[in-house]
Each structure stands twice: as C-alpha cells, then as structure tokens.
Amino acid sequence: MRKISLTIFVFSCFLVSCSNFQKSKTSDTALISGKILNPTSEKLRIQDDSYFISTHTIDTIINIDSSGSFKLNFKLHEAGFYKINFENNNASFFLMPGDSIFILFNITNATKPFNVKGSNADKDEYITKYFDLCSTFDFSYEKYFTKSPEQFVKSIDSLYTIINNHLKDFQKNRNLNQQDLFLMMMKSHLSFEKSKLKAMYPIWYQSYLGKYPELDKDYINNILDKKEINDNSNLKYQQFNEFLNFLIGYSTEKELKQNKKYDTLEVPYPVARYKVINELLTNDLIKTEQMFSFLNTQIREYGVAGLSDMLNEFNRICKDTCKKNKIQQSYLKMEKIKKGEKAPIFSCLNLDRNTVSLADFKGKYVYIDIWATWCGACRKEIQILEELKVKYSKKDIVFVSISIDNDFEKWKQFVKQNHMTGIQLISDEKNPVQNTYMTNGAPYFILIDKEQKIINSRAPRPSMNIENLLNDCLKL
Q: Of 109, 134, 159, which closes a domain?
C-alpha cells in the first residue's frame, strides 16, 4: 500500500468556471487541462500511475504559461490510471478514451491543493479516499511479515475486507453496475495487491527472522490459481507483475533448497529460476515479460553465467524486437567484461587532479570499488574496506576507489574527512568508468589480475567475504 505525505481531496470543481472546461477532440484521445494559482514552477509532469498499471502510455513534461494555465491533448487507446506531479505532489486520476479533466491547483492550501472537474470526477474522488483509507492503517513490513502464517493471513484478509467494503460502498452510492470498467479495474488491482503481499510474506519473514515460515503445503498454490496467473490481460496491472515476481522468487528459493543438483553449479540461481518459470507459466507473453525483467537486471548486476537456457528460450518466444535488442546489447557488453577478458582501460582523476590509468597498476591485482558519497550502501563498506587495505598492505594488490560523484570538491572533502586511504579517484564525466563496466549506480566491485584480465567484474563486496577470493588469487 502506498503511503502519501500529502492528502489529496478531489472535488467536483465548483470553483472552476465551466467556460474553462474543454472536451477531448476525438474518442481516441484524452484532454488534461488546468490552472495553477501562483505557480513557482514553469513545468509539471503527467505519466502513467505505476502504482496501478504497468503500461507506458504517457510520460511527458508540460509547460505552464504565464497565466498559470496548461493543456495536453494526447492519444489514449484504453482506460487507465494516471498522475500529475507538480512540485513533488502527486494527484492520481482515472481516464478513458474521450475523457477530459480540468484541474485547479492551489498548493498553498495544504489540505485541499487540487480540485478536479471532469468525466470521472467521482471516481477520482474515490482514488483519493482509497489512499486516505490506506494511510490510516498501521501497516509496517516488520509488524506484519514477522507474524505467524495464520496471524498474517488473518490480518491481511481483515485489511482487504475493509478496503473492499469501501469500494462496495462507492459502487452502491454511485449506482455502478458490475461491468463498470473503473470498478472492474479497481477490483483487479486490490486482488493482485493482496496476492502480492501474501507472496511477499515468506521472503520478508526470512529476511527479518533468518528462517522461512512453516507454511501449509498449499499456501502458495492458494494465493492465485494457475489459470489467472497465465491470463495475459493481467499484465497491465502493476500489482500483478510484482506478485508474479515475488511468487517466482520464493518458488526459486524452494527449488534450490529441495534439489541438491544445483550445488554443483557455479551460478545456480538463474538455472533454478528458469525451471520455475517454465513450470509455472504456460502463457508465452507472460513468460516473456518475466524473463525480460529478470534478464535485464541479472545480466547488468551479475553477468551472463547460468543464463544460456533462459536466453535461448527468451529469444525463441519474444515477439518484441526492442526488448530482444536490449537484452542482446546488454549480453554483448557483459561478454566483453566476463572472466578472462582483457580489462578495458580507463583513466580517472586523483585528489590532485592528475590522471591515473588502470594500466598504471599492471603487475598487481586490482580491487576496484565504484562508489559515491551519496550512497548509503557504499558508506557501510568504507570501514571494512579500510581494514582490508591494512591487512593486504604488503601483498601484490592495490585498492582503487572510483567515485561517480559529479562534484569534485565535495568528493575530495568527503575522502579527507573519512580518512580514506588507497588510490582515490573520481570518474571522468566525458568517459565514465560506469559505462565501460556497465555499472548502474553504486556500489560495485571489480577484481582484476596482474595481467589486467578480469577475474570478476561483479566481485563480492568487502562485507561479503571477499577475503576468500583474494586469498585464492594471492595464494595465501
């Protein structure tokens, strides 16, 4: 459930003159227009509301004119949930092809910053009240996901009884029939959201308590039946996709635990996940989406090991050329930095603004830390990394830390204040090391041998027992 910091009440905008309200031009477009009182920004953003839907219909920046007015008429082929972001405040609304809405913004009014008039004003008001209702629940992961299985299921069922009754009251008050599109989409959203939480439970229970809960053998199968899991019309719901990801993730962990054959594999997880996907999913479109999501992350974060079977199947069934190309490009880039390949040479600036190259360290092992001053996970590694530098100070290894910060002086000050030793560098903005080594964010660690060949472009962090690998390399 999404927490919102600013409650948004949606009214049938009697404050706005009807002369301001325009209709959509055609039945396959939607019109969003409005006015902002005393704007302090010249732009706002309109996009799909990814809390509700996973489709990507629109994501655009709109200019606000000198009078505070804005307007966007865009192609809309199917109904969905959308949101406007203005100065970090979100307003969610429902749109169908042919719909028009007019929004009056008054962000100085903290309790009623948005007023909406349009085709579905009553449904937009329901969305606001839905979020208001969710924000009243004392819901925290630790509180719910550490309960016993029986208590957890009972608590979640109780929460969603309240939420579903709230939707039933709205249906009754607005005299909506069961085939109303908004009503059907909200029911599906709530059903998948509840299913997602149940699929999350064993994973988060293990995260908090260090062991998996003792579940009834049919717990996972009872969350959602296989027919609904393989209905590709559900792919448009974000909560369905998240549910499926958690379901497959937990099922993969079970597969790894129950089948000892994976113990002989260097990288067992992708192999086990591929088996689970094949057994659970019979719909090629859903299977494609799950494989794409996993491959897109796995290749970038961990490399290509263990992925050959999944890649072959993905290329066989995927009909989306863009997705195929994206995975292929990532694969080819990672092939260039896999174990045994020549490490791409990079140059960075040191604290004195002098250029330092990877080639300068030939003849020694190089343990590279790609980090940033704003990265919390990076900061947690600093002390452990400093201890490693002391321990291996007389060995044939250098420790190179490369910051991806944009502010040289801020980075330099941070390094000095935290007494960071070893080789301290900052990435070249014109030829960033993160592009060369396909690192998206931080932290990442890379280990290179004396001949400047890659040992591991996704090496363990200092906190993840890197010493075993270093000792093997240094023959200690």
A: 134
